[in-house]
């Protein structure tokens, strides 16, 4: 019997639907052996459709080219999305191993499309006729999206320059991993082994225990081993009383891959040069210009203006933070010298003195089920949504819960919502939102979305329900904000739906939700003691708020330093940069609040921008904070649950996906561009 008859994916693709509620993914029927044949089936089908599109004798237009391409890969995308979602959330070793087959097939298919000249010729023809075609704004945006995706990949270049571009991409694809490998090796090369108990003074029990285990594992039984990995390094800097050892660790950490065996100086120079060359080939002045042309911030000038606006007040506040820390150190030690390796240590002590509360005090007010009801109630008050648990939607794990989302007033169906809250060995760390089906045109109709949030929260025990930390509550609200962006999407095409927006805009819907749990009015909805049912005490809420402003100036300066450094590397012709460290010192001088220590260097281990996706994009951390602080002020002015402001947020932000430039959407919501002062106000950095 041919395999196709047994594969639930392929069966559904032939019938054009899964036989489940709203055609939800039939997780209960999927087996390992279904993925690769279904993927092959999907790719083959997509290839045929794209071939038909290219062979179409009719002149290229929106429907026969753009929509044909937008819908060509639906089956393939379904398999891919299910696979990669499970890869993160519920991956047995066997499922993980399938990636060796699935990832190269996906990558090859993606580049096959990206390099298809005949396909691009039709897209270009549609793009050229935009002026005379009768398309709405969203359709125009979709055409532009496809056109830009191809041209940013070199589709417009001469054959000779296309070759150059491939050559650059090839080299860059090796240099990124080389950069991270060097950082990893430099990180692993350092070990501090001690047999003196006195060196451990101040460290928490758990950290000491882990250090003993690490030493034992490395063949030093009875000793303690510390290294530069976060779980060892960070608590050491925070708690170890021995200043000399803190200094040793700090210096080792901050000189990784700088003038050592795993030096990254030449790698940095090569990367920035290739990026610059690539941008120039594509007609942009610099790499930053290239990246930012597809961002809300738009230009390097705009980013620099933004960072500079935050700089002066942040610097004043950071200087105040340091002065406070110096005085505090003097009160304990008799001297006020604060070096970088002192900062975390004394901050921890000062914080404890100023805001004495810990996670354990808060947990009893945050029983998971009550917090979930609380976040649903926020969605009801703000956006008129109801969440009803439904039991007939197939799940990939018994911990998953599924909800049907409707509009309270009209009873209109909004979508399906999955939650998956507890850690498992088969799940990645962290928390994220994802979709099994995005809103928009799919299988011939505009469909409602299936959205999921996956977290790693404190599990219930035999005697206690799941009681969340305050951080976990914020994480839940954050991911729920992304989920609302996916669920409330109201567009025509999936490529422009929900969270498919510029990435310096995508954290607005999520981060804004965290604001409600910093307000008494928001917390009062759900924060009740799980045994006594007493509401959370006002003093505790006040402490949470104050503690969130602790050393905000200093931390703002750190982020600004990374932001300026990233922009400096990417917004000029790097051929003029002779020495990595001299260059770094010059451009970070303005953001320095603690003394510069010789032999250390940030760039050589700045993986975010040299090995991750953050080049000319580090600013977006601060950018997103400004957006959510500024947007939330609007709610605060009108009332935390003001339906009119909420309606605008839904109409112009949550429902619009990427159908318009985010700055235009934001202005429609707020009546003006975002104001950085909103963040300064929230962090207590104004008028210092
Ligand atoms: Zn997020």
Describe this structure as you would to a colleague.
The chain is of the alpha+beta class. 56% of the residues lie in helices and 6% in strands. It contains 29 helices and nine strands. It has helices spanning 8-15, 32-55, 62-70, 74-89, 93-97, 99-114, 117-128, 137-151, 159-189, 205-217, 230-239, 243-254, 265-281, 287-292, 300-333, 340-354, 359-362, 368-383, 470-487, 508-516, 520-523, 538-547, 552-570, 580-588, 607-610, 620-638, 643-654, 662-670, 677-682; strands at residues 192-194, 224-226, 385-389, 401-407, 413-420, 432-437, 440-442, 445-447, 450-454. The chain has a five-stranded mixed beta sheet with strand order 3-4-5-9-6. Strands 1-2 form a two-stranded antiparallel sheet. A two-stranded antiparallel ribbon has the order 7-8. The relative contact order is 0.10. The chain binds zinc ion. Zinc ion (ZN) binds next to helix 19. Zinc ion is lined by residues 478, 482, 507, 510.
What is the strand and helix layout of this fold?
Layout: H1 8-15, H2 32-55, H3 62-70, H4 74-89, H5 93-97, H6 99-114, H7 117-128, H8 137-151, H9 159-189, E1 192-194, H10 205-217, E2 224-226, H11 230-239, H12 243-254, H13 265-281, H14 287-292, H15 300-333, H16 340-354, H17 359-362, H18 368-383, E3 385-389, E4 401-407, E5 413-420, E6 432-437, E7 440-442, E8 445-447, E9 450-454, H19 470-487, H20 508-516, H21 520-523, H22 538-547, H23 552-570, H24 580-588, H25 607-610, H26 620-638, H27 643-654, H28 662-670, H29 677-682
Helix pairs in contact: 2-3, 2-4, 2-6, 7-8, 9-13, 11-16, 15-23, 18-19, 19-20, 20-26, 27-28
Bound molecules: zinc ion.
Zinc ion binds at residues 478, 482, 507, 510.
